[in-house]
Amino acid sequence: MVLGSTPVSGTNVILELTAGTLCCNIGDKCQRGRTLQEEIMYRLLFRTVYTARNSSVSVYESCVLPAKCNKATAPVSRVANGGGIKALSTSSVRFCEKKNDDTPSNQDQKTNADKEADPTETPTLVTQKAEDASNVINMVEQREEEPVLLKTDDGSTTQQQVDVKIEQVVATPQQGKTDAAKSGKESLLDLLGAMKVEVTNKRKLKNLKVKPSYESTPKSKPAAMESTISMFQKATVEASSQSETLDPELVAAASAAASTLPDRSQAESELLRQLRQHEGVTEAQKKGDMNNLGVIIADMKVGKNPNRQNARPANQIRFDEDGRGYTHDRGITAELDSVRRRKNLFSGKRLNVFSPTTDEDGVESAVARPTLWDMDYANQLSLSTNQTPRNGLEEMIQWTKEGKMWQYPINNEAGLEEETSVPFHEHILLGKHLEEGFPRQGPVRHFMELVVAGMSRNPYLTVQQKQDHISWFRDYFHQKEEVLKEADVYLN
Amino acid sequence: MVSPSQKPPVCNNMAAPGRHVGHYIQRNSRFLIHNFEQLWGHRSFGWTPALRQQVAEANEESTGTIVIPRKKTWSKEAVLEALASTVSRDPTAYSYQFQDDPYLSPRTSSEFKLYSLSQESGRSAAKFFVNSNSKFFTKDFAEPHIPCLMPETVSLLLEEQSEEALKERINLRKVTAAVDMYDQLLQAGTAVSMETTHELLDLICLYCDRDPVQEGEPQPEDMEESGEEVKKRKGRFRRASDFLRFTWRENNNAERIFNLLPERDTRCYSALIRGMVKHGAYAKAFSMYTDMLNNRMTADVHIFNALMSAAPDVRDKYNERWDLIAELLNQMSQQKVQPNLLTFNSVLKALRRCGSLAKTQALHTLNEMKAVGIAPSLASFDHILAVFSKAGGFVSSPASSGQGNTDILQEVMSELAGTSFTCQDPNDVLFFSSAMRICLDNKDLELGYKVHSLVEQGENWRLLGDPYQQSIYYGRFFNLLCMMEHIDVVLKWYRRLIPSLYYPNPQGLRDLLQALDTDSRLDLLPTIWKDIRTLGHDNKSDLVEELLTLMARDRHGPEVQEAFAVCALDVKSVFDGDRGRHSLEWSTSALSHITSLLLRANKSQQAWEMLQLFKTKNRVPEEGLLEDFLSMYHSAGSSQRAVELVQLSASFCLSATPRLAKRTLAEFNLTEEQRAVLSELESTEEPSD
């Protein structure tokens, strides 16, 4: 998400970052108080999120979507990164705290505002200001509306401009609190990832016994952080100078125009690029890299750039508080990753050795008698899986398979073991058995037809039994041939 | 009320409910419930003819043409399967196999092992008895006849020299007898048919020219050589015959018979090569294969599968190994042999030993499987996971390897989600536990839940493997939960899994204790202690110590302290109980923890008894503990006890005795006599200090 933003936002990130870390270093006491407050806010935010989280679908994922559209605009991502710093400074300390529910949530957001604003101020001043600023979230919203701040924020090293900014904040209070908070935390995660915060395991920290770890952890961090910061600062210089050349009103107009378009972020970045190119013509000698930057901005697409800020950091974060922070991070990365890797697992090259199978081969192998190897293999398979039944019914299934149990009828032919292969007409159409050995007509024939008709309705005899029955009569009548002849009844 | 889209079979087909149940249960139990509701809904109003007709008409209108459904054939277990699918697992009950006898309900994993194995061995003993005394079991009670209840013939009936006798010996898997018979037949000049020769070679090669251990028979002497291995793996539930490894001997009967054959076909080669690979003669297998090619014969798929799995053993370098495999694959396609699942699984398995090469090639192989139209089994994915975790470990830092691991597992899980599997490869059963290991290593709870939901899908739980594998899997899952999840959720899982599916080991319980500690739910400790006792882990001293430490660390509310004290007394009774060599040794910390727990619950008498125990067990109480005692006696106003305490402390030669004496003198109302005793103690100890 950070990627989608312009370099302008990049500069702000850095500045705010330095601010945040400086606060970390200088105002130690003040910092601790603040982080405490911040921690409380996070608790609250987490709690609101928590109910949904149980289903293992991180709320973040849903939050990300609305946030994304705004993402690419410079102001928002800047604010979001501000949030990132905050979390950075607090994450190490946060777990030390136990729950304090009754503190209002917006206090710490104020402190957040200070940190963004003024690295040079003394801690007392900071808190003073904090009270002035009503709500950092409001400020977020406001910045989105008025890109004027692009400029003021760049100059945030000077105190005057900072004051201006905060006044503005007070002047235009806005709503949309939750939205901004979410986006703030998202890029919090991104930023944290980019900094490679050391992996902290819950258990290890726990063993440190909560209270003492207060001091040890924050101290260890800045060293690592500052290196990243200095790296960023280099990049910042060019970018900031460039952004200053734009008239804030122009930028505001551009973003306003862009917001009417469906793809807002891209539209705005394109508009801004256009503006900058115009100005770049006049001041070409100073900013040789202007066009390059414009090209870069134009080419940027949300979520496309796999290196640096997006892909790596997301998974590398291992900060931990009570396990929650981490899983949230997972939620976002899971989404990003799924976008990335859909192509991955089955989309690469293949060995290109075989051609797809035809069905004949399969049939052929199925016909062949199972060899000893096959039996051994089947045995291995059955041994390796868990075959124990879980309930009485499953046990009965097993018995049925082993042939120990009466089978539950599944159709009306249950119990026809002997007769399964005999078609029904063998049972019904018995007349053909009368062709041989019986007279064509006369009382014997009549009698036998009655016998056959009766048997054809008897379901309890097998076909063999029926045939035997008929042949018994055949033999009988042949034996009694004499008697029949006497009675003028002929067999043939 | 009845919409056209609702299918008429629901109302007028008797078989419909069963079919729906059977169909849906495969997919999702939630669907099942939903479906049942739907069914009942229909039942209540769906039986009137008018309504039925209406539905039928509506259906005709919507379809227009009549489609005659294909005949559905039902397996004989269909009814039972439908019924069984309605029964869900009861987490409060013991495993079904133990429900015959409540006395034999296993409470610990060792009991589980004992009972399930004895059940199994009882069955085999009965079978052995019936088979070996078949003359006494001639009466056939069952009508219709049940073949599996009758004794099987296990002894040879045909004595004369004939191919029939040879076949009988082969069917009964009497290797040596079969070889003898074959030799006699050859000497007599009788020709043996090719089919029988194939079977004979198969038999000899499968069992490596030895008589297999017959099921239920006393095991022969040569088992001893594998005794050590048996001991090493005694945690497993494997049959002893499974890991008997015989090595292929030079010129054994298989090779001898093979060489004597006038003509050899692919099947003969196949038997030999598979036997050689199975029994470790890899190089020989390859030379046999070359021999076969020289005789201008084509191999079958089994030969290739065997060779593929042997490939890493005949080459040393990673790239040479892969080259060999690739060559074999190419030869396969040249000889127009279609690969099967096992082919690719053995390629992937071989790739596990191909180092850094493996990562790319494994993915290529997977894509090849897809292209050829063979669905990968769990074993394929298991190999891929292993390939990625291993390769990452060698090449880059552990952090990034873990990263690659979850990435690939994430992909695999998104591929597999919602599928139910049947076992197609013996290695399938390793997938779940290794997937959960990756989740645990990377502390990825989200992914862990995904893996577990896959396990709960359909019959997938059967692929968790034998009880040993299963306990590994659940152990890892529970460990992950304890580490990452909120304690309420952990306890929910705890009740679901334990003990019906999983008997936690001491480490698992310690994880649980830590999770309780993290989320400040120490008040649950007494219930956990009860479970610990039930699970038979109350003799693990470090676990008991940890429990006591957690209980004694902080002060809690009076009810909790009361419960803790009761629990502590219970722990004490475990210490006191004599259980042979497994009984616990009192340690100082355990003694003082229990004592202080009792003190906090104002059980002064029991606490005092504990103090006596210090003496009998030759342990020395800490000073703070005695101070606590003094404070309690002070609030209770029992000066006599206080004096006794100081005397006790003196008898331990504690350096704190004078201080205690001083404090007693200062705070308590003492008689002259007591004062004298105390001041003596106070003074006498001072110099020695």
Word description of this protein:
The complex is a heterodimer of chains A (492) and B (689). Chain A is mainly α. Chain A contains 24 helices and no strands. In chain A, helix 4 runs antiparallel to helix 12. The model of chain A is unreliable at 1-37, 44-182, 196-244, 285-291, 301-343 and 359-364 (pLDDT under 50). The longest helix of chain B has 24 residues, at 109-132. Chain B is mainly α and 689 residues long. Among the domains of chain B are: 156-214 and 246-277; 298-374, no CATH class. The termini of chain B are far apart. In chain B, helix 19 packs across helix 20 and helix 31 packs parallel to helix 33 (672-688).
Detail the poorly predicted runs of chain B: 1-56, 216-243, 391-401
Mean pLDDT of chain A: 56
Which structural class fits the helix and strand makeup of chain B? mainly alpha
- Helix-strand pattern of chain A, N to C? HHHHHHHHHHHHHHHHHHHHHHHH
Q: How many strand segments of chain A? A: 0
* General form of chain A: elongated
- Cα-atom Rg of chain A, whole angstroms? 42 Å
In terms of quaternary structure, the protein is heterodimer
Alpha-carbon Rg of chain B, integer:
36 Å
The percentage helix of chain B is 55-70%
Distance between the termini of chain B: 95 Å
Count of discrete alpha- or pi-helical segments spanning 4 or more residues of chain B: 33
Tally of DSSP helical segments of chain A: 24
Average per-residue pLDDT of chain B, rounded, comes to 81
Residue share in helices of chain A?
A: 55-70%
Strand content of chain B: under 5%
- Number of distinct beta strands of chain B: 0
Q: Report how far apart the termini of chain A are.
A: 102 Å
Shape of chain B: elongated
How much of the polypeptide of chain A forms β-strand, as a percent range? under 5%
> Largest sheet of chain A at a glance?
none
In short:
The complex is a heterodimer of chains A (492) and B (689). Chain A is mainly alpha-helical and 492 residues long.
